[in-house]
Amino acid sequence: MMKLIFEITKEDRRSVRLPMSTIPSFNIPKEYARGQRPHLPEVSKIDLVRHYTALSLRTHGVDNGFYPLGSCTMKYNPKVNEKTASLVGFTNIHPLQSAQETQGALELMYDLKTMLCEITGMYDMTMQPAAGAHGEWTGLMMMKKYHEMRGDTQKRVILVPDSAHGTNPASAHVAGFDVKSIPSAADGGVDLEALRDAVGDDTAGLMLTNPNTLGIFESRIVEMAKIVHEAGGLLYYDGANLNAIMGQVRPGDMGFDVIHLNLHKTFSTPHGGGGPGSGPVGCAKRLAQFLPTPNVEKKGDTYFLQHDNEDSIGSVKSFYGHFLTLVRAYTYILSLGADGLSDASRIAVLNANYMMARLKDTYTVPFNGLCMHEFVMTAQKLKEETGISAMDVAKALLDEGIHPPTVYFPLIVKEAMMVEPTETESIETLDHACDVLLSIARIAKEDPQQLHDAPVTTVISRLDEVEAARNPILRYSISL
Amino acid sequence: MMKLIFEITKEDRRSVRLPMSTIPSFNIPKEYARGQRPHLPEVSKIDLVRHYTALSLRTHGVDNGFYPLGSCTMKYNPKVNEKTASLVGFTNIHPLQSAQETQGALELMYDLKTMLCEITGMYDMTMQPAAGAHGEWTGLMMMKKYHEMRGDTQKRVILVPDSAHGTNPASAHVAGFDVKSIPSAADGGVDLEALRDAVGDDTAGLMLTNPNTLGIFESRIVEMAKIVHEAGGLLYYDGANLNAIMGQVRPGDMGFDVIHLNLHKTFSTPHGGGGPGSGPVGCAKRLAQFLPTPNVEKKGDTYFLQHDNEDSIGSVKSFYGHFLTLVRAYTYILSLGADGLSDASRIAVLNANYMMARLKDTYTVPFNGLCMHEFVMTAQKLKEETGISAMDVAKALLDEGIHPPTVYFPLIVKEAMMVEPTETESIETLDHACDVLLSIARIAKEDPQQLHDAPVTTVISRLDEVEAARNPILRYSISL
Amino acid sequence: MTGYIPHTNEDIQKMLDVIGVDDIDALFLNLPDAVKQKGRLNIPEGRSEIEVLDRLNELADKNTVYKTIFRGAGAYNHFIPSVVSSLASRSEFLTAYTPYQPEISQGILQAMFEYQTMICELTGLEVSNASVYDGANAAAEAAVMCMTRKRSDIAISDAVNPQIIAVLKSWSKASGAQIRIVPQVDYKTDMDAIAGIMGDDCAALIMQSPNYYGVVEDMQQASDITHDLGGYFVASVNPTSLMLFQAPGEYGADIAVGEGQPLGNPLAFGGPYLGFMAATEKMMRKLPGRIVGQSHDKEGRRGYVLTLQAREQHIRRERASSNVCSNQAHAALTATIYMAAMGKRGLYDVAKRCYDNAHYLKEQLCKIDGVSCNYHPFFHEFMTSGVDGKKLNQKLSDQGILGPFEVESSLLWCTTELNNKDDIDKVVSIAREVMT
Amino acid sequence: MTGYIPHTNEDIQKMLDVIGVDDIDALFLNLPDAVKQKGRLNIPEGRSEIEVLDRLNELADKNTVYKTIFRGAGAYNHFIPSVVSSLASRSEFLTAYTPYQPEISQGILQAMFEYQTMICELTGLEVSNASVYDGANAAAEAAVMCMTRKRSDIAISDAVNPQIIAVLKSWSKASGAQIRIVPQVDYKTDMDAIAGIMGDDCAALIMQSPNYYGVVEDMQQASDITHDLGGYFVASVNPTSLMLFQAPGEYGADIAVGEGQPLGNPLAFGGPYLGFMAATEKMMRKLPGRIVGQSHDKEGRRGYVLTLQAREQHIRRERASSNVCSNQAHAALTATIYMAAMGKRGLYDVAKRCYDNAHYLKEQLCKIDGVSCNYHPFFHEFMTSGVDGKKLNQKLSDQGILGPFEVESSLLWCTTELNNKDDIDKVVSIAREVMT
Ligand SMILES: Cc1ncc(COP(=O)(O)O)c(C=O)c1O
Ligand SMILES: Cc1ncc(COP(=O)(O)O)c(C=O)c1O
Q1: What CA–CA distance (Å, rounded) separates B150 from A329?
Q2: pLDDT-based confidence at C317, cuts 50/70/90?
Q3: Which residues pair with D132 in a beta bridge?
Q4: Among the partner residues A44, A79, A424, nearest to B426 by beta-carbon distance
Q5: Spatial distance between the Cα atoms of D319 and C197, rounded to a whole number of angstroms
Q6: ipTM confidence score
């Protein structure tokens, strides 16, 4: 059993010391002083290093193997990004240094936003939001303000397709909107009729990712935009799926008014075990006045932070965003350039279609036709025939060192497995994963118990998640 | 099976590009041009990263667990050393820049040699040698020159105790000396009588590590020095075991004339899978004139490389030594200081004695008494009783994530296991290793086959080394 | 192919054959022609790594890096042991995502569990989540946790970091809740004003201690007042200060939030940092964001999973009270390793050194004629007035020192363990010069 | 306890009890009193990491770092992709030692096996060891491989890097073998002199190509002459150049050696670098140092082990022909990852860029009145004379450029792929200025 850091703690061990100081000691006023000191770990350097090294070895990342986690764009994270993000000129500047002293940082942010605006077809952009969901909320607050400023106070409803990611309805709700769900049509796209029925005076906007979470391009997007715009609503683009369309089509040109990007997906910044991400929000000209403050601007050859903007929705974060994440995304865009970004999308789509073509006879694909950068397949038939669920397939993949696809999402597909290979994977890797998936389907018929028991090569087998939620143990109890 | 990088190679894949160039292309003269281009790998970035990441995961280092490999001082390698060794001001300076432009590097080398001289009680030192064995050879060449300059051409014999490390006799041989082996006495130290018998007019010197490779301090060292010196010989100190004596006793004070250090052992520079090491050689005043050139010197406040030294044995290496390794050792010495170095030795000795005390009833210790920073125990009795050899014990340790001690060295102890815990290991780690070793001894009696089969948790089981040597396959054959 | 793509032309052809299309363009036929992109994107051509590094180095070099820093105001210049980034930057940690598959993510899950434990220890509270975006968003999420139909307004002290107040105000526009500001007197929250402003219909009071001006507030009193009024008490705290000063759990806070940057994350021009949140057990199921819980497998082996997911957006969708998905996992991991590296005593030493340095600096500055200070208890930041900030900061900058932050016409100073007596004496003597 | 020691006082006491002594001093009673150290070592007290970093930064800052470098002469400023150090610095690689236990060392063993294969590919020879200390020592080890009782003298061209000659001379003092120098004419080995100097009793001829002055030698001819005389032919080569120029295997060299630094190892003021060695299969058992071989386990799985150990010092002791123990494993690992990262085409591009840049530079320089050049084929280094080196280098240095290396009164220039046209044109124009 892997010990917790608290379980290798020993009173009086320590590994870091400060320089001697010749400054006198000052007393802490008793009435404010802490009673008992927190029980932080006390470990030696070598044990510290071994402990967290061991934890790293119990963690699977892109560097360890294929990671086709749908909707998450687990592409290669270039090492040069880490190098640039660790330059002292970036890591050691205080956010409250003057603009004059931080021209390099501001130029980078300005350059990045200019390029992201070009990629998305947007007019202006904020770098502040911390992640995709945060970007959604930010964009929605801008939409809210837009309607408010026009006196459209009845615009309280955000339309969200039933295939949408959970953050979309949640963000709309947190932003104070009512959420109306739009069903999908038989082809997996938004049902135009249903959309027409749903829009009305109260429509503040529609949130959409395109391609949608089924990996299908919403080919009726122009009509959809028209319907929503005619009702006085705005179109919000969830940029999580931008990896499909860079250089092919721009959200701005499709009619979207607001967009957030996930730099930690499309732009190769590492996911860090769950974050930090970065969710810049871009918008059309008519919404630019509502962008959060401060925003980075340029005057002549000088870059500065514009703090004053009366119509802004205000600040959504301390300081200016996840700067070091921006450095990584900027490094990536410079590396790829226009053609590289376009190639990335084209090959991402090629890879997904290739895997789909190889798998669709075995794992059903609920909607026919080509996919974009990802596709959803289902284990439903497999389950009916063999009792093997998407979760079982996922666990069996673990035994082969492959990270499973996203399972049980989107919710509208039963036993869904959402596969996003990304462009950085080779045909050999895809073939291997397909072979493994096909063999799992065979084993499901021949020896389903083997799959129910999976995984067996991992450091631990399936965990009791129900028990964890029923009797939550959320911290280690330090007994002294 | 883990593929070789050549087995994931595919024509035309590439992962690194150069900037465009506007410089014209020049032809390679045909008569000198290469025929067929070498078949270097062609892999994508992600595959490159996964391949070498996977190889790293098949490699056990100090950061992965206890590594009591005797005579190798596998102590904790501080991360700060890696940070200082990667400062651009060190990594990006050309060795042929002027002294004026490299004052920082020269000052570091000078400071380091001054401190190492103080620690060892030597008069001057060279930083050039690349490793311990290289240092031995360098020191021996200085001894040779010393005798030559005095006209003592008959001094052709180097005395080496039979417990010595293989590099000692090998270095002496490569340096052109004859080697005479000195037997050990019953207490594990050099047999004074045998030494007296061995010395003579032809004695160029004695090579010794003290404590010796049995981990025993040669307490008769003063007499030994006298015997050798009186015969006109010199005393060479193999510094591999300096970790036992820093701040306790200095080789110079014991009577040694020449010494090499293993910075990659005592001074915590990482072993890197087998090197680079660094083997500075220090010497008494009367030998200083023979040190290799160039050597770093100081004049006023200025540091410089002294290239001219008529009596020098010459250069033993390109440039000035393993500079980045020196940076690490310097960082380490600054971190520990006088007391820290002394503590390191004291605790290294404590740890070794503790383990010996816990193990000596089970694994025989061939020589009684206390040990220094390491000790040798033997599986001989175990083998007689159970058939389990030192090698079997070693392989069983692998299954517990512990790197085995050095086995079958020193040669004078049958079924030797040489244990060097080092000072950076905690009592918990030592206790765990002792528990495992004791339980292996129990299993040897109860179920020896289990140990013959070990290791079973590793990526591969025991390899056929005989076959490897008989039909050597030393490279992958690239078939096209 | 450009970029990080492994495909050879042959690979592409083979894949197209399997798919059954002629070329890659055919995969994009669903895109309406009308909106399809015609030309290339108007961004520069891709560059080689050599050129990219040149450009990034050029930008980095345009920033002024100070070795000596006397500025805080929400971002603190602490020492980060080398071991922290060595370990946190292990590529397994960096290139993993949210641990949806616990069996191959035990490492990051366990680290998060350790993080939650450390945050509970620091704050003296019972439960913690696995981080939110930053300290300001943590405060806003805390506010949301406290709101009910009946009590939706939030009171916040004017002495809280203005960025937190600003973010809270942005948030409030979503729900229409009002933000009520409790005034400060001389850089300290006016305790006497709390009751009047909160009344009996306020969801919570948010106070910060040490507050924006560095002053250690009377949190016990504020907490008692708030609870008497039936509201929740939310404490925004500096984690380092908790080694010395009363913990939120000790003065009865219901929720503690804060900016975790001081725990091993670099200044980095403002981010990424991390927001930490801890609460009483009662509020557990209201906590937003990811939470890791302990469980066991079939063989009874201890393990960790993401838990209480029923709260989260992907399950609850529009009924979720928070939309957090990606959080600050890696920054939290860094904080975890930092706390483990510094340890109980090391982090205490850091806090005490910050404290001593600041008190010494203030003592010295206040001796200068014309400099005025107040005498509230403080941690490692304090205000002075009477000095010409522009002039002083220019002089300090000339000496390679980043001086105090100008807050209106006063100065907000900060010291950490990275300032030493020589630095401080130098600053004092420059300040003295400026005053004469 | 100071340093990296985990022991608490209690731990120490417990351990002393088990050992059965009163204090740690008791463990040192074997040390003769007469020589035991009395006081403290006269070196400074231990410093905190903050102070250590300050000091090392201070030293690093005292060195002049040039972005633009036109100097080689044995150490070459190549581009090292970020991925190389990211991977090579994985702590498993760094903190392991020689893979004595193959079952837990398959990673480093396989990497060494890949290294050996790459070196064989580069040199066109059949076997390679796993590295020796540096290029100079590789040459010396090669000499030893060639020596026999009857033929112990070694011939070496005067156009070989003087450091190699110097090390060889130091080596020769061990055995008493003579080093015979083959003269150069105008920076090229005098082919006509070889036979006379070697006679029929020389063990080997060591030639370097491109030689110290950058000139590509006629290795085929030298090899043929040497073999006709019954000697071994040892080629010292620049690994990058082998992408363009004849491989040692192609011109019949028996042994190829060289400095591996250009393969991804930084300049680093001269080290650590690595010496590579490859030879014909016939000489396999004479190769010094570590060698990795392929084998298999009981289950038939392919694996790697240190092999041919019977050659080595720890088995053969005073009968070993080499004493190498620790080698340059990590530098070789770095070279391996570098070669894999650059790949067949990438390394070719590097070589060709080096070549083109150097030829362009030479062309431009030679147009300047008063600058003289010779017209031998060369790779990426060449000599000019007629320019005042001191003056030129000072001017270049003022512009942030490290100029050519002064060899007597001439200049040895070098370009790599890191020089671009702008740099080169700038250097040429500065050279022109200096000449007028
Ligand atoms: C489609 C979609 N939208 C939004 C998000 C939310 O992004 P983040 O996790 O950065 O908040 C995700 C992330 O999983 C997503 O896949
Ligand atoms: C006692 C002793 N002497 C010398 C050496 C040789 O040192 P190196 O491997 O650095 O050449 C060693 C290394 O194992 C050793 O243990």
Answers
A1: 69
A2: confident
A3: D275
A4: A44
A5: 93
A6: 0.97
